[in-house]
């Protein structure tokens, strides 16, 4: 692993650290950026505030409808496979039972879960996972054609520079080292058949 | 002492150089991911599943188990030094551990936690050694009816005890059961839900599902969680607690061991619940409860002991009944199935080398972890400075390339990415991924037991109530299913005094 001394530049607010390797004098030299005399309850409340905002009722309706949709689809397909009787079941009986349970749970969630606040809102931060996903999908698509090295290098650079906010220097150095290490492990040492260019 | 012979032979298995090496690799990885906030043990085990293909089953499980209990040790470090729990099971350690660090006793807190972890882990292994064969011999006469009831109860318990919405957890479990039916029906040979795809005809492999939902899903989700990024701590010295500290904490360590051991056995229990229960118990028992939250050593020692004891004892239901008690154990179950070993009551008799090899490896692992967390703790504190931004692409690439090596096919890689999206969206919309993976693993066992049992009973579902064990289990099932209704009724009455419930609320949400 690569030890880097400073704290993450992307940490929110007053979190960026001033505790750069002080001498080990038996104590931990933590920055008092936040009031430290919090009771467990206050601390938990603070964590609660830091969480991404909760999504509204629409998220619950949406996810419940997806569940009901999948359930109904599975019910239809299971019936088409044939149900049979409990003593002589056809292939569709068991999936039919599960998908019925799923539809019922979905309806229950649709009605009873309206006030639940356990779903998270998609915020501007959600662009990061989306970008990550696109690069992953692109890598899966390109690997059979171009080998894994160049897509992996691009993926590393995008994730470190744009999603992680690393400096260009550390991004390029670390990415190159990472890809070289993967080449060494998967191609040279383990001799796997991963598509590779070189 | 015939009973002890296989136990002693198990040590011979552990001491093979290959197994020792994998034990070391496992606990080091566990300690590392415990220290690094972000990836939990379940995600790490899922990502590393392809590593286990080319080794002996016992070696594979020794390593995976090491990751699991190693993470319990490592999670403490960030809780104490940074007030950031590295693992869910170390959340309560933050309350007193960080206060101790502020008072200049970070070393003492870490030292007490690792000694407690060691004691708890070791006590649980000894308990496991004696209890597991008894449970297994009891379960030997289990027929399909009992297995149906047991699997149903296991899935329900894991879904209801998980944090967050119970209904959503049950939906996730249903989805897992449904995914398990994809492919050829084992009784009739007919294809189900394959949509004409040849690749799906053999069913969906467990590994891409686990890697996608636990691994990639969590990596993508973490890309969004910027505010939890770690700040770099300084060095820690003097990790050896004084005799007075040890004396003060010894009661908490003893109680934590017992409490953790029993909570770990329960389905849906495990390390997180054990640590919270231990903290609550210590606070209740203390003569001056107001010291808690201000740096009480018992508040660190108790929970840390309990989470390790629970992590160890949660192997009992897996290795003796073949029913994983939590999501991480579901991954172990899957890893064993890949190796052609079906965990169950016959495992102790038929494969004592594997059973006792895994159990005894935990002694070695705990000793290694004690060494790493007392004299070598400084090294792991330094690792805290590795940034999440650098780790994320590395873990993502390990996942993709690892998925390829399972069958040398891009189809598996595509599946991993697809299930990664599913896992991310599930987390985003408040669906726990654990029950899905657990239900998926148990899906085919549940279906085949159910169908066999119904054949025996001539198609009469009431037949399940004609056998005492399956009847009892099903009655418990109904009770557990009805419990949320009763509870929410009670909660409404309690809503006027929110202060009381605040403490439990917190724990469930973090």
TrEMBL record, chain B:
Pfam families in UniProt: TctA (PF01970)
Please verify whether the record's keywords include Nucleotide-binding.
no
Q: Which residues form the DUF112 domain?
A: 20-438
Annotated source species: Arthrobacter globiformis (strain ATCC 8010 / DSM 20124 / JCM 1332 / NBRC 12137 / NCIMB 8907 / NRRL B-2979 / 168)
The protein, known as: DUF112 domain-containing protein
Q: Which residues cross the membrane?
A: 20-49, 109-139, 145-162, 169-187, 258-281, 318-341, 361-381, 410-426, 469-486
* KW Ribosomal protein (keyword) present: no
Instruction: List UniProt keywords, sorted A-Z.
Output: Membrane, Transmembrane, Transmembrane helix
């Amino acid at each position: 692993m690569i030890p880097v001394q400073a704290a993450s530049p992307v940490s929110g607010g007053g979190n960026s650290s001033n505790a750069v390797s002080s001498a080990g004098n038996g104590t931990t030299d933590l920055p008092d950026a936040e009031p430290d005399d919090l009771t467990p309850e206050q601390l938990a409340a603070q964590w609660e505030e830091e969480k991404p905002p909760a999504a509204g009722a629409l998220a619950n309706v949406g996810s419940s409808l997806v569940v009901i949709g999948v359930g109904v689809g599975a019910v239809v397909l299971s019936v088409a496979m044939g149900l049979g009787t409990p003593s002589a079941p056809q292939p569709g009986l068991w999936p039919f039972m599960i998908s019925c349970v799923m539809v019922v749970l979905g309806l229950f969630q649709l009605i009873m879960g309206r006030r639940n606040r356990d779903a998270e809102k998609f915020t501007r931060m959600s662009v990061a996972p989306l970008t990550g996903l696109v690069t992953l999908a692109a890598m899966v698509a390109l690997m059979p054609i171009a080998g894994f090295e160049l897509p992996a290098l691009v993926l590393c650079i995008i994730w470190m520079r744009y999603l992680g906010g690393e400096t260009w220097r550390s991004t390029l150095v670390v990415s190159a080292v990472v890809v070289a290490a993967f080449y060494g492990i998967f191609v040279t040492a383990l001799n796997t058949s991963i598509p590779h260019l070189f | 002492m015939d009973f002890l012979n296989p136990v002693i032979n198990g040590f011979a298995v552990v001491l093979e150089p290959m197994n020792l090496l994998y034990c070391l690799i496992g606990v080091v990885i566990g300690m590392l991911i415990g220290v690094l906030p972000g990836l939990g043990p379940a995600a790490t085990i899922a990502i590393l599943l392809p590593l286990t293909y080319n080794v002996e089953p016992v070696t594979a499980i020794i390593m995976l188990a090491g990751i699991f209990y190693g993470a319990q040790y490592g999670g403490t470090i960030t809780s104490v030094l940074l007030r950031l729990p590295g693992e869910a099971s170390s959340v309560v350690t933050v309350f007193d551990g960080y206060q101790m660090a502020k008072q200049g006793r970070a070393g003492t807190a870490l030292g007490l936690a690792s000694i407690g972890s060691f004691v708890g882990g070791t006590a649980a292994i000894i308990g496991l050694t004696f209890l597991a064969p008894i449970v297994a011999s009891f379960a030997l006469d289990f027929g399909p009816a009992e297995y149906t009831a047991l699997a149903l109860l296991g899935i329900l318990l894991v879904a209801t005890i998980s944090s967050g919405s119970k209904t959503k957890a049950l939906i996730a479990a249903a989805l897992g059961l449904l995914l398990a039916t994809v492919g050829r029906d084992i009784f009739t040979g007919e294809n189900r839900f394959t949509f004409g795809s040849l690749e799906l005809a053999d069913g969906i492999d467990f590994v891409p599902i686990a890697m996608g939902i636990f691994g990639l899903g969590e990596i993508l989700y973490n890309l969004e969680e910027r505010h939890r990024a770690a700040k770099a701590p300084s060095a820690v010295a003097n990790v050896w607690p004084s005799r007075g500290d040890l004396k003060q904490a010894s009661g908490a360590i003893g109680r934590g061991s017992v409490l953790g051991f029993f909570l770990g056995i329960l389905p849906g229990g495990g390390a997180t619940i054990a640590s919270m229960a231990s903290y609550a118990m210590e606070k209740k028992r203390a003569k001056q409860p107001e010291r808690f939250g201000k740096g009480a050593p018992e508040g660190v020692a108790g929970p840390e002991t309990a989470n390790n004891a629970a992590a160890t004892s949660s192997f009992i239901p897996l290795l003796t009944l073949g029913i994983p008690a939590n999501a991480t154990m579901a991954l172990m179950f899957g890893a064993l199935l890949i190796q052609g070993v079906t965990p169950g009551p016959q495992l102790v008799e038929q494969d004592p080398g594997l059973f006792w090899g895994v159990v005894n490896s935990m002694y070695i692992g705990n000793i290694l972890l004690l060494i790493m967390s007392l004299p070598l703790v400084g090294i792991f504190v330094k690792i805290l400075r590795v940034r999440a931004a650098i780790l994320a692409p590395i873990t993502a690439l390990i996942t993709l390339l690892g998925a390829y090596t399972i069958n040398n096919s891009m189809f598996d890689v595509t599946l991993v990415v697809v299930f990664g999206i599913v896992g991310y969206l599930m987390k985003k919309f408040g669906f726990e991924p654990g029950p899905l993976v657990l239900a998926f693993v148990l899906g085919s066992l549940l279906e085949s037991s159910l169908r066999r049992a119904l054949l025996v009973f001539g198609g009469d579902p009431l037949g399940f109530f004609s056998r005492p064990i399956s009847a009892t289990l099903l009655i418990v099932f109904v009770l557990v299913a009805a419990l949320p209704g009763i509870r929410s009724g009670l909660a409404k009455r309690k809503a006027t005094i929110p202060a009381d419930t605040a403490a439990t609320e917190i724990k469930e949400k973090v």
